[in-house]
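Review form for a predicted model. The reviewer records the input and the model, then writes brief findings.
Reviewer: anonymous (R2)
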Amino acid sequence: MIHFIYRSTWKDGKKTRPVGFSKSLSLYSFIRALEHVKTPNTVTFFNDGEMPEDRLALMRTFGTEVIQTGGIGNSASYNATLDYVKKATWDRDDIVVFQEDDYMFTESAIIKLIDATSTIRDVDYFTMYDHLDRYTRTDDKGLSRIRIYWTGDHHWRIVESTCMSFASRFHILLKDMWMHRLFSKLKYPRDRMMWYCIQGIGMFGWKWPNHRLVGPIRSLTTHMEIESMAPGVDWAQEIQTLRQWMADHNYSETT
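Model under review:
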């Protein structure tokens, strides 16, 4: 079984967004990708602060549960999702997906993630986002550990870090929860340091056991910030295709 924790806020901050971006389009791209999933699943929406009623209606329609937090902020809302997961009685090998609200999904993103989690058995963390950092940074600490996996129709590789949108096996997440909390004490999570610690790389080379993180080649999602768009995918075309899908389903863009 797979459990989605979709963490959202109405606010958008000062991020530089590509043309055509909206959080409602990101939500629709998630719904479209979810449409292809045959694996039993749950979808829990965590909304930090007020949410536009039309977008909230979408969440109620496609979600299993909608939870409201009172504008507590980024790290605090992430910790609230960890509290929720800690109380769950899911099977140990269930997959838990944490998703932020400003990503664009390709249509096959989630089914390819599920394929990877069932095929790549020696890895416990997965990201659907091929971060631009992997092509521009020169200070990656985990390069000596790179390994390429082939799942039948997609390549995956070990990566040193990602953002706070990722998937994990439930029992591993419970074991590692102290690290997720440790690096989410400030206003914003220190994601890169968290992934270093989880994987035991860089200054955390002493840590054991370590749990590896893999990401896709090509990307299956992208963080919708101009300076961080995943390479190799025509995201403007993805938005256009998504809007056509919405039109075919009589979905209108929400606020």
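Findings: DSSP finds eight helices and eleven strands in the chain.
Further findings: The CA atoms of residues 43 and 63 lie 5 Å apart.
Recommendation: see findings above.
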